[in-house]
From TrEMBL, chains A, B:
Source organism (scientific name): Thioflavicoccus mobilis 8321
Name listed for the protein in its UniProt record: Aspartate--tRNA(Asp/Asn) ligase
GO BP field: aspartyl-tRNA aminoacylation
Residue ranges of every copy of the Aminoacyl-transfer RNA synthetases class-II family profile domain listed in the record: 141-560
Subunit structure: Homodimer.
Gene: aspS
Length: 592, 592
């Protein structure tokens, strides 16, 4: 039906007859001539209809925005002075010699031909098929397709087998709520949609598949915070007979190849690695944004004995932390700005935000500092803080003092916010691995041990003896890949011995009976020659979002859902016929 | 952890030190030496442990079938006379110099090292991780991965964008029952799992995506006949601005490339095409198996006036059919065999199976025929039948006389069965397109028109006028790709004009209100400049099954379900916590 895409015409096509199909992006009448910008997936080209061809001109006069046309015409150079440098096809235009209206269009509820016009996301989602016509959205879906293509080809070349795992499956305990699917054949029973293919990929290793990958749909029925979706996509990978170093090496090579191919960017080789402990100490986060040059500094030892409980208390608490965060040129901050940051850290549980402004330390010493808390700090503490933070005149030092997790969350978030607000972010891409995670963390409410990753993550071999004795000190063989403050991938070497798996279940307060009920098939499979294995999963939506510079994962999905997990385009979810529920042996019972 | 796969060692590796990881496929002790066949994804190699290395030998003595080992050793030529030609690695063996037991194994409930042992499918599914270790199953999953890889690379190269569509969506009316997913956030409302991404891919065309593909999971809650699965996979494709000929040309090029790449087979170029009418006439089926050389022959005109109601009735009925099927050398059939075929066609609703044995037509004419029905047939009819079927001495002619659909189904199935039973099947691959389908077929019970494909299939442009007048005569722009009697792909050009879509809904007895409720978003989208578009979907499981020679789609899926839609490995579906149902505002209400 066509010979070329609109967007591919260049001066090399001049004098060629072309057949184009596309949408009327804009129609202008000028000097008795009709100009139509015709748009397709590849871009725009200007089509000219002259009045001396009366029938064609008459048709062209009828077309409106978003009409679908088929145009036959001849490519010619635009008259001197009318070239459009902003358009890839701007040197040429097409003189229309035939035109067919393939379809008409009502006036769209959102304009597609202006950039400045801000449209509500609700309208964009409701008319997603119009929103997706915008070049920006087309580009994102196209890059997404190229990213998956490149990842697949890397893995294909490295002997990974693309293998599908079930969507209708048994509840997999990743910690979130499952979506359930009632069974008609087995009344009263339910499938669950997978939160990840975790156990199936482990079973594939026990099946001798050796290297598995899948671009897998995952489902979590969570209350949708910020930028989550009820269904999302991960690049899921598992291998046998590899150490974590071998696997991490291969995975970072894949990500380097991806960035080189798609963005022409060279990532560091090897990727830097940080231990969990160091990441928390320096950045207050296990997914540190290395673009921000600020770092947390521990000062508890300086403040243990000061006469200021806010500091001394956490400084003496084995689970407490007291840390400083130096903001270069932070002396410029206004009282209002400091108040706003105090509110900001409040979100993360911090009860306040102490600070010292360094006005003139160089010549005035202690008198050159300005702070409501200065009076509580003896000279030695002040000097220690100044030395350790390396603060100079014009800086400001923020403090956090609380349970370690509160300080880490508050100062960790503040660090990133300051980086953004104060224009301190370095350019470019700053990936790293975080390693040596603890096996367990204690649930704040129940005091019980919980798996930091998931219950199938292997402990370090040389710490197996510590498991029951000091679980909190035991480290796992997990690793996360972090890029510019976002965790893009996470994985681990898995437990491949039944006895170890049982010990972990036991530590996690999963009774033998529960373990049998939920993971009986796994425990059984571990008896029959399970190879050492491990894997990783990359969050594809987030990766594409970062690589396309999109502001939300919704902008890199064709048909995302709203925060209330609804599809505004198709009106899902919706009510169903009572007969359908009857077949499923179900009744709706709304709560009062 | 290893240097080579077991299966890749050849004489070129002799004298190299290698590190292997794998499973003990078989252990034999012979002449004081231990032989272990070590198995991994690539194959088997023989490892030898000599008693002169006491510690290694002691370890080797402990290993049993399916133990997981890491072996360091030196490759050497097998002693003359002990080579194993059946093994790819059979020229060499590895002298073990180190061995580590990475994991032990209990005695597996099914043997993996013998071919002849037949194991029940139930056991295979329950211990799928053991079943998948068998080289045959490994090979199938590997070929499946290569097939998807090749299909993707063809489509990537041709500008198709791999785009994901939602799994949690609104009911799509493909005719089968939906799987439902209760919403927690919207109590009493449900998502449906997609029976196909049909409407989303059409919306992507309206979004200007131009060329879309996806290897898409689809779900149908059907009573599982023969070889169906509740979830299955299709290669889903849609394009804009292409005629059916352009699209079919591209798709057959893809399938030709696939068969060339994977099987080194050259399929015909172009693929032959049959109209639906001709396929039904000659083969009684719209997915004819062209490997069977038998064809149906119409003989109603010869029998319209015979004094035998069984033939004359259907011959006079406008909806009837009387057809003959000649079986060369069918005179050999025993009475018992003919009885069995009579029962066989009964499955398809045929009330009997008349036949004529051609014993000696050449010299004896009518007296040389043998048949219970011969007495009803006048000479002219007999001569007509003999001429038209081309029967010769030794043949047998079967007859079908009933409503056309009964004759087609019965003789169509008999044709294939005879082909199989009598060794008449041609070798190789016999693909074709079936085209010119009717738009509608009449529901036998209600007498209402139903869409033969789906309600979004476009009618032929030059038959638009016939729609309301003679719907039964109206043909669609649909096309099916058929391979060796299996429909491997089906698609159509879609309706891209709102008015036509509304007329089709109307003809299908979908009221305006129902249309608005179920397809309102589609009808609305059609208003805003929908391009002409069409597509196709290939059944990936079936395609892989055919290409690997597997007997069932269950054998080309890693974790299939049983006929009652259960996963024997993980015990899904299963009961859930009442609290979960409560959160979903649901009660189970078992029927008495």
């Amino acid at each position: 039906m066509r010979s070329h895409y609109c967007g591919e015409l260049r001066s090399g096509h001049i004098d060629q007859e072309v057949v184009l199909c596309g949408w009327v992006h804009r129609r202008r009448d000028h000097g008795g001539v009709i100009f139509v910008d015709l748009r397709d997936r590849d871009g725009l080209v200007q089509v000219v209809f002259d009045p001396d061809r009366a029938d064609i001109f008459a048709t062209a006069e009828q077309v409106r925005s978003e009409y679908v046309l088929r145009v036959v015409g001849r490519v010619r150079r635009r008259p001197a002075g009318t070239e459009n440098e902003e358009l890839a096809t701007g040197e040429v235009e097409v003189l229309g010699t035939e035109v067919t209206v393939l379809n008409s269009a009502e006036t769209p509820p959102m304009q597609l031909d202006e950039h400045g016009v801000e449209v509500s996301e609700e309208l964009r989602l409701r008319y997603r098929y119009l929103d997706l016509r915008r070049p920006e959205m087309q580009q994102r879906l196209r890059v997404r397709s190229r990213i998956t293509q490149m990842l697949r080809s890397f893995l294909d070349e490295h002997g990974f087998l693309d293998t599908e795992t079930p969507i209708l499956t048994k509840s997999t305990p990743e910690g979130a709520r499952d979506y359930l699917v009632p069974s008609r054949v087995h009344p009263g029973e339910f499938y669950a949609l997978p939160q990840s293919p975790q156990l199936f990929k482990q079973l594939l290793m026990m099946s001798g598949l050796d290297r598995y990958y899948q671009i897998a749909r995952c489902f979590r029925d969570e209350d949708l915070r910020a930028d989550r979706q009820p269904e999302f996509t991960q690049l899921d990978i598992e291998v046998s007979f590899m150490t974590e170093d071998e696997l991490m090496g291969l995975m970072e090579e894949m990500i380097r190849t991806l960035f080189r191919t798609i963005l022409d960017v060279e990532l560091p080789d090897p990727l830097p690695r940080l231990t969990y402990a160091e990441a928390m100490r320096r950045y207050g986060s296990d997914r540190p944004d290395l673009r921000v040059p600020l770092e947390l500094v521990d000062i508890a030892d300086l403040l243990r004995d000061v006469d200021f409980k806010v500091f001394a208390g956490p400084a003496q608490d084995p689970e407490g932390r007291v840390a400083a965060l130096r903001l270069p040129r932070g002396g410029e901050l206004t009282r209002k700005e400091i108040d706003d940051y105090t509110k900001f850290v409040g979100i993360y549980g911090a009860k306040g935000l102490a600070y010292i402004k360094v006005n003139d330390w160089a010549t005035k010493g202690r008198d050159g500092l300005q702070s409501p808390i200065l009076k509580f700090l003896p000279d030695a503490a002040v000097e220690g803080i100044m030395t350790r933070t390396g603060a100079v005149d014009g800086d400001l030092i923020f403090f956090g003092a609380d349970k370690a997790n509160v300080v880490n969350e508050a100062l960790g978030a503040l660090r990133v916010k300051l980086g953004q607000d104060r224009g301190l972010m370095a350019e470019g891409w700053h990936p790293l691995w975080v390693v040596d995670f603890p096996m367990f963390e204690r649930d704040a409410q129940t005091g019980r041990w919980m798996a930091l990753h998931h219950p199938f993550t292997a402990p370090k071999e040389d710490q197996l003896d510590l498991l029951e004795e000091t679980p909190g000190a035991c480290q796992s063989r997990a690793y996360d890949m972090v890029l510019n403050g976002t965790e893009i991938g996470g994985g681990s070497i898995r437990i491949h011995r039944e006895a170890v798996q049982r010990r972990i279940f036991c530590l996690l307060n999963i009774s033998d009976e529960q373990a049998e009920d939920r993971f009986g098939f796994l425990l059984k499979a571990l008896k029959y020659g399970c190879p050492p294995h491990g894997g990783i999963a990359f969050g594809l939506d987030r990766l594409v979002m970062l690589m396309t510079g999109a502001g939300s994962i919704r902008d890199v999905m064709a048909f995302p859902k709203t925060q209330s997990a609804a599809c505004l385009l198709t009106s899902a979810p919706s009510q169903v016929d009572p007969a359908q529920l009857n077949e499923l042996s179900l009744r709706v019972k709304l709560r009062a």
